[in-house]
Design brief:
The complex is a heterodimer. By secondary structure, chain A is an alpha/beta fold. Chain A is 27% helix and 20% strand. In chain A, strands 3-2-4-5-1-6-7-8-9 form a 9-stranded mixed beta sheet, with helices on both faces. The longest helix of chain A is centred in the middle third of the chain and has 14 residues. Chain A is elongated and about 100 Å long. By secondary structure, chain B is of the alpha/beta class. Chain B has 7 helices and 10 strands. In chain B, the strands form 3 sheets. A 5-stranded parallel beta sheet of chain B has the order 4-10-9-5-8, sandwiched between helices. Classes of the chains: A alpha/beta, B alpha/beta. At the A-B interface, α6, α7 and α9 of A face α1 of B.
Chain lengths: 296, 294
């Protein structure tokens, strides 16, 4: 599922990349940025944690005019007189103003590095509210954020991921530069898809998915048993040949009337009896417990 | 205690054009019966259906009017949302009034996703359609060879009028048709539409919960759901659905921190809600994301 997420984010989507101390999710974030640029999308990056060169240095190329970096690394708390972008400015109006400066017809993708930094200075409820407003606002097409799970309480991480349409949790893999990604994707209809993949990121920021993580003890499903034919191996003949079947169809059953009489009788006369039935508690038939006597 | 019923009475058999008998049960009670409710067999409390008949059975017949049902959400809020939608859809079918409040999704979106009710029509005698019936019934897939007299009857025939039944069945694969939905009166509360006003007094509740409670109180009083309101008008039930209370989008940090600063806010709101409901003809279903709350 990771390649599909990289190929495109639905409008109004919020992707949260959760990483831990063992494996940094920043490379994956850079892959998302480069994939969006390759799709000719405009990307706005708000960088709190690392400098511009470190985050998007490797992405300098032909498509840099569509990549806008907002420097929140040099002075995020506004200690100098002219801060570029402070953490207090992370609300709907300021971010919309920032993004609208480029004023292109297509709504851009917003990348935040990282949400953890903002959460240390702004209350989680306010961050959730801003993210929800950005999603629904329409100024921004999609939001991708990096979150360090080790830095926050479980409830904070949970609340933020509750809002997200897709959550990618990365953890170190077995060998070398491989990593394991657990992906949870929520579609608009409410369906939730879970997936687990092993991947590694190449030098050009392309993501190669190795294989699905193997579950231990996973058996192949047994091939469905062939249905045994109950009419075989009997001393008497239960099958019908074709001529016998024809003869059976032609047999006139009692009380089978001609077509005209049938349609005449099928008109319901007003005042004829009707069957009224209200399903009651006994109709809640449990297939697994037909006698209602299992003590589960 | 919910609105008590003096004598266990059933709504009188309604006259329909296809009534087979002219028998009509004489009701002696002065209390106007409300469609979609029935008195409990245990203590005479007025009950409404939650929309899920199995859940009604577990609750002892139905949900008592004047009470609050709290549902702890599952991980991805799929089943709790479904139960909330069933509850609201039941209100539409029984012609109750609805009040939907949410912070995450627009209440209009929730109302558009309501499941379609399965309303079986009684076999109607239409003399104008006689020529149409002459077409071959054997061509249709469910033409019956031996039991052909039952061919035109629907599979399940319900009572005379669907809305007088208690508890309906729904088809989750389809959404409710707009005509049925618009026939019901809905009140909405979408939190982003209510801007935060700084309250001068220190209140135990968050500003968002206060606004919600105030809005509820105003609706109950204006539409006449108070028990104390004059009995001359026909009474109806207000069904209140509150989605995901206690989540971060309501401004509550109960689900974010281990030691929240507003730890009593949600509890204070629920107390206020219970007090409000006790004196009105309404019933509430609240969903709480308890998996996030430590």
């Amino acid at each position: 599922m990771l390649p599909e997420l990289l190929q495109g984010v639905d409008a109004g989507g919020l992707i949260v990349i959760q990483d831990c101390a063992g494996y940094s999710g920043r490379r994956l974030l850079q892959s998302f940025i480069s994939a969006a640029l390759n799709r000719d999308e405009t990307v706005h990056v708000i960088g709190f944690e690392v400098s511009e060169e470190e985050l998007i240095g490797g992405l300098k190329g032909s498509s840099t005019q569509r990549l806008h970096f907002h420097d929140a690394f040099t002075d995020p708390l506004g200690w100098t007189d002219h801060p570029a972008f402070t953490v207090r400015q992370f609300n709907l109006d300021e971010v919309t103003h920032l993004v609208k400066q480029t004023s292109l017809p297509k709504a851009p993708t917003l990348v935040i590095d990282s949400l953890s930094w903002i959460l240390r200075h702004v209350s989680p409820a306010a961050v959730c509210k801003t993210l929800q407003q950005l999603r629904k606002g329409g100024a921004v097409r999609a939001v991708i954020g990096l979150l360090h799970t080790d830095m926050h309480q479980r409830g904070t991480v949970g609340s933020l991921c509750h809002l997200a349409t897709s959550v990618i949790t990365v953890a170190p893999g077995m060998k070398g530069d491989e990593a394991v990604a657990k992906i949870t994707k929520r579609s608009k209809s409410g369906k939730v898809m879970l997936d687990e993949e092993i991947f590694h990121i190449r030098e050009d920021l392309a993501v190669i998915v190795q294989s699905k993580a193997s579950h231990t003890g996973h058996k192949q499903p047994d091939p469905s048993e062939k249905e045994t034919d109950p009419t075989a191996n009997l001393t008497f003949n239960l099958r019908l040949s074709d001529t016998e079947r024809e003869a059976k169809k032609k047999l006139a059953l009692p009380f089978v009337f001609s077509k005209e009489k049938k349609t005449a009788l099928l008109h319901s006369v007003p005042g004829s009896g009707r069957i009224l039935y209200e399903p009651d508690a006994n109709d809640d038939f449990d297939q697994e417990d037909p006698d209602d006597d299992l003590d589960v | 205690m919910a609105a008590p019923v003096d004598s266990a009475c059933k709504p009188g058999a309604q006259r329909s054009p296809f009534n087979t008998t002219s028998f009509q049960k004489k009701t002696r009670s002065k209390l106007i019966s409300i469609p979609g409710t029935r008195p409990s067999v245990l203590n005479g409390q007025l009950l409404v259906s939650t929309g899920v008949t199995s859940l009604d059975f577990l609750l002892g017949g139905g949900l008592a009017v004047g009470t609050v049902l709290l549902i702890e959400e599952d991980r991805y809020d799929s089943y709790s949302r479904m139960i909330l939608k069933y509850f609201l859809a039941e209100g539409v079918v029984c012609r109750h009034e609805l009040f939907v409040a949410a912070a995450q999704d627009n209440p209009d979106d929730i109302l558009q996703e309501l499941p379609a009710p399965i309303l079986d029509d009684v076999a109607i005698h239409k003399p104008a359609e006689q020529p149409r019936l002459s077409c071959e019934p054997q061509d249709s897939l469910d033409a019956m060879k031996i039991a052909w007299r039952y061919q035109n009857l629907p599979k399940v025939q319900c009572a005379l009028a669907s809305s007088s039944r208690f508890g309906h069945y729904y088809d989750v694969s389809k959404t409710m048709e707009p005509e049925i939905r618009q026939a019901a009166k809905c009140h909405r509360f979408y939190l982003p539409e209510h801007p935060a006003q700084s309250s001068g007094t220190h209140s135990p509740m968050l500003q968002s919960y206060t606004a919600l409670l105030r809005s509820l109180q105003e609706v109950i009083h204006r539409e006449g759901f108070d028990v104390a309101a004059p009995m001359s008008k026909s009474r109806n039930i207000l069904r209140i659905g509150l989605h995901s209370l206690g989540s971060a989008l309501w401004g509550d940090d109960l689900s974010c921190h281990d030691n929240p600063t507003h730890r009593h806010s949600l509890a204070a709101f629920l107390y206020g809600l219970r007090a409000l409901l006790r004196s009105s003809l309404s019933v509430a279903v609240v969903t709480v994301p308890s998996h996030l709350i430590q």
